[in-house]
Amino acid sequence: MLALGGGLGGCAAISVGQCVEWAPLSPAEQEQEASLVVDADLRPTDRTVEALGRYRVREADITSVRKGHAPGDRIDVIATSDQCTSSGEPVEYLDGDPLAEPGSYRLYLTKEQAGGAWRLVVPGAAQRLDD
C-alpha cells in the first residue's frame, strides 16, 4: 500500500530518509491492511523511536482487541508520518499528529521493526472514541 517516491516536493535535500506516497484507505481497508486493530487508552511518554525519523512514542492500554493478537495489555504506538522523514530528525505531520491528544482511540496497526513499537498502518489510521 505504499510507493516510494524519489521526486516528491520538499524531499530533494534529504540525504538519509524516505518519502512515501500513501494510498488513501477507507476504515474498512485500514482494518483489512492492519495486522492488529485495538481500542486503547493512549497517553504520552518521554520516549522516542528511530524509524527513518524520530517518532514520539505513546503508551496504549488496550481495552479491546478487534483483530489480531496483542502481545500484552499495553503496547507502544507511533503515528505514521504523512511527510518526508529524515533519519535522526523529528517527524512532521501535514495536519498535525493524529495521536497528539491523550484519550481513547481505535488504532489500525502494523508492527514497526525499529524500536519494537506498533505504528498506524497508514497516516491517520486512528479513530477518536471519546469525542
Report what the structure shows.
- This protein is mainly β and 131 residues long.
- Helix content is 5%, strand content 45%.
- The chain contains one helix and ten strands; from the N terminus they run βββαβββββββ.
- It has one helix at residues 27-33; strands spanning 2-4, 17-18, 20-22, 36-50, 54-67, 74-78, 85-86, 103-111, 118-120, 126-128.
- The strands form three sheets. The protein has a five-stranded mixed beta barrel. Strands 1-3 form a two-stranded antiparallel ribbon. It has a two-stranded antiparallel sheet with strand order 2-7.
- Strand 4 and strand 5 form a beta hairpin.
- The longest helix has 7 residues, at 27-33.
- The chain is globular and about 35 Å long.
- The termini are far apart.
